[in-house]
Structure formats: structure tokens, C-alpha cells
Write a structure and sequence with these properties.
This protein is of the alpha/beta class. The protein has one domain (6-237): Rossmann fold, CATH 3.40.50. It is 46% helix and 15% strand. It contains 7 helices and 7 strands; from the N terminus they run E-H-E-H-E-H-E-H-E-H-E-H-H-E. The protein has helices at residues 15-26, 38-48, 62-76, 99-127, 148-167, 193-202, 208-219; strands at 6-10, 30-35, 53-56, 81-84, 130-135, 173-180, 229-232. Strands 3-2-1-4-5-6-7 form a 7-stranded parallel β-sheet, with helices on both faces. Helix 5 links the parallel strand 5 (130-135) and strand 6. Helix 3 (62-76) packs parallel to helix 4 (99-127) and helix 4 packs parallel to helix 5 (148-167). The chain starts with 5 loop residues before the first strand and ends in a 7-residue tail after the last strand. The mean pLDDT is 94.
């Protein structure tokens, strides 16, 4: 169902973004991948193949977001799928956190998503088709005490996704959010395969590939079916 489709993935250099890029490529998608890390992007592009469009961009910079979208559409010829996945994670007591770190997290987790979607919409609306998926979090459904600002950012994303989906019904554009719990990847500071395997065996975390599978499921539903949310939790840590 995805063979020949085109997709832009932000935050593609690691974690959920990288796993989703690999999976969509396996299913015949042509990809534009974006992140801040030049070396990691180039390595992934080499793995995915020569037709991959590589765009180094910083989601905290509005001009970078606009350039990224323009380069993705130009490089791919059209944009069928936007996976707005880039995000950062800051946890801890509000009194002990840096206000600057809050600003950066809100810039990436909220404002950059708004800007990515806004930049993609004229193209998708003109074609009367498209899929937009945003990486949310269980923190967007349950307020987590040690993640007040992160939870706020993901609640904002969910509100945006729900309203946007209704606005875009006449344009045949589907909009949904994937909301994982603990994902065993770089965002959580977990990179050793032995530690990932241990946590998976204990059912206290999920792999990035598990989330990518959910994204693939959302994208491969029949056109008349929208998956509004998929919430993915480690079985032993359900909230």
C-alpha cells in the first residue's frame, strides 16, 4: 500500500524516527529524512539508498523548518506523508529545572510541529490527500508528576492534532498521533542492546521498532479509516 509513496520524517537520525525510516523504506517509500546530526543522517541515508533526500535542519529555527519542507517536496517531487517526530525530553521537579530548557523543549515539541504541519499543508491541500502523524506520548494522555513541562508539551500536541484532523476532513488528509510510554532509545539515554533486551524481557520498555510498527499500521489503513491515536505502553508499566 505504501509502494511509491513519499514521506518526510523529522528526528530521523535516531530512535523512533530512524526505525520508522527503515520500516517505510522496506515498504517501498521514498524518503526525506531530517535531523540536526549530519553524520547520523548521512549514515542512515547510505543505508536507505541513493534516492533518499537528506536535510540537516534545526527544529528550533523557523527558517530551517521552512527550508526543510521546501527541500523535501522539491527532492521527492511530492509529499504524501509527514511524520513530525522530532522531540526532546526534560524531566525533573519544576523548581529545579532550567527555564531555558523548557523554552527549547516547547520550541521543538510544540512550535516546530505546528510549523512543519503549516509548511506541508498547502501542498497536501492542493493535492487533496496526505497523511500527517505526530509523535505524542503517554504524557499527553496522563499528566506525569516528574514531567510537568514535557506533559504540557504533549497535551498541546494532542489538542492540535484533534482540532487539525477535523479541519482537514474536506481535504482527505488524515491526521493522527502515536503516543508511546517508555521507549528504550537515545531519548531515554538507553543505547546498549543488552540493557534494551533486559528491559524488554522485563516488559518495562518498548523498542523504537515497536513504535515504528504502529506508525506503519496507521499509514496502511484503508483511505476511509483514520486512526486518531495509538497509545503504546510497556506491559508492566501500564498507567
Amino acid at each position: 500500500m505504501l509502494d511509491g509513496k513519499t514521506a518526510l520524517i523529522t528526528g530521523a537520525s535516531s530512535g523512533i524516527g530512524r526505525a520508522t525510516a527503515r520500516l517505510l523504506a522496506q515498504h517501498g517509500c521514498r524518503l526525506a529524512i531530517s535531523a540536526r546530526s549530519t553524520d547520523k543522517l548521512r549514515a542512515l541515508a547510505t543505508e536507505l539508498g541513493p534516492r533518499t533526500v537528506t536535510i540537516v535542519a534545526d527544529m528550533t529555527r523557523p527558517d530551517d523548518v521552512e527550508r526543510m519542507m521546501a527541500d523535501a517536496i522539491a527532492g521527492l517531487g511530492q509529499l504524501d506523508i509527514l511524520f513530525a517526530n522530532a522531540g526532546i525530553f526534560v524531566t525533573g521537579a519544576a523548581a529545579g529545572q532550567s527555564a531555558d530548557s523548557w523554552d527549547e523543549m516547547l520550541s521543538v515539541n510544540v512550535n516546530a510541529v505546528f510549523r512543519c504541519v503549516r509548511a506541508a499543508l498547502p501542498h497536501m491541500q492542493a493535492r487533496k490527500c496526505g497523511d500527517i502523524i505526530v509523535t505524542s506520548s503517554i504524557a499527553g494522555h496522563e499528566v506525569l508528576p516528574m514531567e510537568p513541562i514535557y506533559s504540557a508539551s504533549k497535551h498541546a500536541i494532542n489538542a492540535f492534532v484533534y482540532a487539525l484532523r477535523r479541519q482537514l476532513i474536506p481535504d482527505n488528509i488524515r491526521v493522527g498521533a502515536v503516543a508511546p510510554g517508555t521507549v528504550l532509545n537515545e531519548l531515554w539515554g538507553i543505547t546498549e542492546e543488552s540493557e534494551i533486551a533486559r528491559r524488554v524481557a522485563e516488559r518495562t520498555g518498548v523498542r523504537s521498532e515497536d513504535v515504528a510498527d504502529a506508525v506503519l499500521y496507521m499509514l496502511t489503513r484503508p483511505p476511509h479509516v483514520t486512526i486518531r491515536d495509538i497509545v503504546i505502553m510497556p506491559q508492566a508499566l501500564d498507567l
